[in-house]
Each structure stands twice: as C-alpha cells, then as structure tokens.
UniProtKB/TrEMBL annotation:
Name the UniProt record assigns to this protein: DUF373 family protein
A Pfam family this chain is assigned to: DUF373
Domain of life per record: Archaea
Position of the signal peptide: none
Residues annotated as transmembrane: 161-182, 188-210, 222-242, 262-282, 294-313, 325-344
C-alpha cells in the first residue's frame, strides 16, 4: 500500500461542523485538527469529535510507519439528513477524488449513522479499510437509545399502535378514576385482568378480522352466533352465581341450575341453527334440512333430559323410571327422523322447483 496514495476520510453526516463556521471539504492535517478542536470545544459530547480525532490518529500512525503519499480530509452532509446529506457527501467526495486523485481511502467512523454512507464513498473512491472509533460503551448505548426512541416514536404516532399504547392505558386510567370515585377501587385489579384478557383473546385469535370477514360474507349467521354467545354467557354467569350460593347444598344447586338456565342453552342452539337457515334462504341456496333436524332434535329431547336429571337428583331408580326415559328418548328420535325426512324432501322439492324456474327463464 506504500506506493499508493491514501486518503484518510472522516465524515460528519449531520454537518455539525457548519455550526462552528467550518466549510467542508477540509483537507490537510492542520485544517482537520483545527476543525476537530473547534467542534470539541463547542459540543464535546458529539461522537463526530471522536471520529475526526481518530482520523488524525490514523494519519499520524501511517506517517510514522513510512507512508509518505497520504492525505486526510473531512467532508460533511446536511443537518436535514436523508437524501440531501447523501448527495452532498457524494459531491464533496467526488471533489476530493478529482483534486487529490487517491488510489483508495481509509474510512474512519464513529460507528453510528456515519457508516450508512460507506457505499456512497466507495462508489467514488475505492475503499481500503474501515476504522471505527467509539468511546467505550457509547456505541451500545447509542444504538440502544436509537432503537428505543424509534419504537417509542412509532408507538405514539402510528394509528395501528396508538390504540394500544395510549388508548388502552387511557381506558384503564379512566376506569380507575371512576371506580375510585364510587368507592370500588378494590376491583381495579379484576378489571385490569379482564381488559388484558380481552385484548389478548381478540389479538391472538384475530377476532376483529374474523368478525369483519363474517359480516361481509354472512351477516345473518354472524348475528345468530353473537346472540347465541350472549345467551350462553348469561347462562354461565347465572350458573356461577347459583353455584356460589349453594356450595353447601350441591344437589339443590344443580337442580336450580337445570331449571333456571338449561333452557338458555336450548335457546342459544335454536338461535344458532335458525340463523344458518335464514342465511341459506337469503343466499338462495335453500339447504336447511340438517339445521331443521338439529332444532327438532334439541326441542324434542329436552323433556327426556329434564326427566332424567330430575330422577338422578332425587335418587330415584326404578324400572318404570328407566322405561319412561327410554320412551321419551325414542319419541324424540322418531320425531327427529320424521322431521329430517320431511325437511330433506322439502329441500329437494324447493331446489328442483327453483332449477325448473331458472331453466324456463333462460329458454
């Protein structure tokens, strides 16, 4: 390398040297040292100071090792950063290349944003080496704070994140204040857990996306599912309350649960299957026999289940009771099969009638 002209290059991407009245490019050890001293006295915390002094140290080291054809220079970008800074750095490096005609350059960096312009320098002058000069621990801290600041900025500005970084904490703070006013502050932890659980479930299972797609493709069935879930949730809440009140009398609690909430689950299932039938009708497919059969079976088997539970809770076991239960189940089965056959034939008749109407319209 000793027969080649080497350029030691320091880059101030954000053009801090312009604040001290230094116009770049700066060429020569004394001029670069003067710029470094001025910058150090003005902003000693700036990492660019380290890079410039590092470039001077690299220059002196190569000089002491016998490299005679060597030069040092400082270029800068722009306080605006981005493309404007890149264009100015390329312009100044090109000016140095024409003026000094180096065989290659040793790029001295503070290890931060300055290394982003290495491809720009390399596109003008061949790159011999990259030397990083950082104060111990400063690089890691700088990168950590840069990443942290980036995430904080995104969290506070991007619409898709603001609802989680500001919206949910805002709701929690508002509810805490309301609970405190009415003397229910002890329930804050429960509410926070509930809110967190709701968010995790909605995000984990993409509930909002599923609801949106379901509403666009099948709104009636979606409404039926929502209503069924609400009814089931009400039934479960009632069951829990009954269970808490009858911890000392389990059989009475179970009997009350059956009498008070069993029909809730029946209604929920009927609503669910009815929404499928309505949705099929609105779409013009008219496929309903399975859902009609399901509704028929649920309603017809209900008396048999009530009868069985009543005898189990009252510890009644007799051949007559078993026979009565089997008769009710057999009746429910016969009724369901009959409804299935009739609804299947009705479905086929409706579909054939519609097909015939459609063919007549096309002819």
């Amino acid at each position: 390398m000793d027969n080649k002209k080497i350029l030691i290059l320091a880059v101030d991407v954000d053009d801090d040297v312009s604040k001290i009245g230094v116009k770049t490019p700066v060429v020569g050890r004394e001029s670069v040292l003067d710029a470094a001293l001025k910058l150090a006295l003005t902003t000693p915390e700036d990492t660019d100071v380290n890079a410039i002094f590092g470039a001077i140290k690299q220059f002196d080291k190569l000089k002491s090792e016998g490299f005679s054809d060597i030069e040092i220079a400082l270029v800068s970008g722009s306080t605006s950063g981005g493309v404007e800074a890149d264009l100015r750095i390329r312009e100044e490096v090109s000016e140095l290349a024409q003026k000094l005609k180096p065989s290659g350059t040793i790029f001295v960096s503070d290890g931060g944003e300055d290394e982003r312009v290495i491809p720009i320098v390399q596109s003008v002058i061949p790159l011999f080496s990259v030397q990083r000069v950082t104060v111990q621990y400063s690089k890691n801290i700088e990168e950590t704070y840069r990443v942290l600041a980036s995430y904080i900025r995104k969290g506070l500005t991007e619409p898709r994140l603001v609802k989680y970084t500001l919206g949910l904490p805002g709701v929690l703070i508002l509810v805490v204040a309301i609970l405190a006013v009415f003397g229910f502050i002890k329930y804050v932890a429960y509410f926070a857990a509930f809110l967190l659980g709701i968010v995790m479930v909605f995000r984990g299972f993409s509930v909002l996306d599923v609801i949106h797609k379901s509403w666009e493709s099948d709104p009636i069935h979606l409404i039926g599912r929502i209503v069924a879930l609400i009814v089931i949730a009400a039934a479960i809440a009632t069951d829990v309350e009954i269970g808490q009140n009858y911890t000392n009398n389990v059989s009475a609690g179970v009997e009350l649960i059956v009498k008070d909430t069993f029909d809730y689950y029946v209604v929920a299932m009927v609503v669910y299957f009815s929404s499928i039938i309505a949705s099929s009708y609105m779409k013009g497919t008219y496929r309903f026999w399975k859902d009609v059969t399901a509704i028929s079976f649920i309603l017809s088997v209900r008396p048999a289940i009530f009868y069985l539970i009543n005898y189990v809770l009252n510890n009644i076991s007799s051949i007559a009771a078993v026979e009565q239960f089997l008769i009710k189940m057999f009746s429910a089965l016969i009724l369901s099969v009959s409804v299935a056959i009739l609804s299947f034939r009705l479905e086929k008749w409706v579909q054939n009638r519609l097909l015939a109407t459609a063919q007549g319209a096309t002819q």
